[in-house]
Amino acid sequence: MDLRQLEIFKLIAESGSFSTAARRLNLTQSALSHQMRALEEELGEQLLVRARPQVYATAAGQRVLASAARIFAEISDVKAQFERTRKNESMGSVRVASTHLAMTYVYGELLEQFSARHPEIDLVFHATETTEDPVQRVLQRHSDVGFTVLPVKHPQLLTIPLFRAEQVVIVGRKHPLAKQKQTTVEELRRWPFARFEARTGGRQISDSLFLEDGGYPPILAESNAVEYLKRIIRIGFGVAIVPAFCVRTELANGTLHAMRLRSGAVLQEAGLVVRRDVTIRALDIFRSVCLELRGPKLRTINLDNVERPVFEPV
C-alpha cells in the first residue's frame, strides 16, 4: 500500500466514477483499475462496489477512507509547518533555564522583549533552584540557554556576559544600621545573617566575604527565595546581602534600607551560557537579541540606578 493508491481510492470514492477520477489524475482508467485491484488484493477486502451509475465504497472501504483522511490530514499539517519554515527561517524554539530570582527580577524583561520581536520563536522555560543548575542543563542538552552568574569555564560552553549587579547589605528600617550608608564585614558579624543556599551566586558572594576571615555570624535564615529573605529582614534585626535590583521596590517605599561595604562596591557578573557545538537558527537569533539589548558594553546595576530596568528597549 502506498499514498498514491490511497489518493486514487479516495478520489474514486468521492467522485463515484473511475472515469472522472482518471481524468482528474491524468491517468487511464485501466491504470486506476490496476491500482485498485492491487490495493484490494493487499488488504484482502473489496473496497469498491462497481455499480452503475455510481461507484461507492464498501464497509471495508469506508474504514480505509477514514484512515486515509487522517493520514492526509497529518501530511498536510507537516507540509504546512515546513512551508512556514521556508517563509520564515527563524521559526523554532529556544529552551531557557534560569533561577526563580533571575527570571523574576532580570531576564523576564529581556524575554518579554525578545518574544515581542520574534513571536514565531517559541520559548520553553525551566525554573531552577541554584545558579549551577542552568549550566548543567545546557551541558546535558536539556536546555539551549542557561542564565547564570559568571565566570563559567568549560570547554564545551560559550559564555556571554550581559550585566553586572552590585550586591548590597540590607536591613529593616528600624535596624541600628539603617542610618548608615556604608558598613564593614566586621560590623555585620554583630548581627544574625540571612543567606542564600549553597551553589548560588548570592552564596558565593557571602562566602567570599565571611569565610576568608572569621567566618559567618549566627545564621538567621537560609533560603533561595529572595522574597522570603527580605521579609525576614523587615521583621527582625538581621542583615542580608542581595543584588541591588532585588530591592528596588522596598528602597522606593522605605521598607528596607540598603548600604554598601566601606571596602568598595561588591559586583557580580551575570549572563548566559550555550553549547559551542549547537547551531540552531532560533538560538542564533536569541543570542543576537540579547547582545543588542545589552548594548556595546556591560551595564552595572547599582544603588544609583536601581530604579531603571536592567534591559531597556532599544
Radius of gyration (CA) equals 32 Å
> How many strands, which pairing sense, and closed or not: the largest β-sheet?
11 strands, mixed
Mean pLDDT: 92
SSE pattern: HHHEEHEHEHEEEHEHEHEHEEHE
Coarse shape: rod-shaped
User: Hey, roughly how much beta strand do the residues contain?
Assistant: 15-25%
- Separation, N- and C-terminal Cα atoms: 57 Å
Structural class of the helix and strand makeup? alpha/beta
CATH class of the largest domain: Alpha Beta
The CATH topology name of the largest domain reads D-Maltodextrin-Binding Protein, domain 2
Any guess at the CATH architecture of the largest domain? Answer: 3-Layer(aba) Sandwich
Number of helices: 11
What are the segments in which pLDDT stays under 50 over at least 5 consecutive residues?
none
Q: Quick one: how many beta strands?
A: 13
Total separate domains:
3
Percent of residues in helical segments? 40-55%
Entry summary:
By secondary structure, the chain is α/β, with parallel strands linked by helices. The protein has eleven helices and 13 strands.
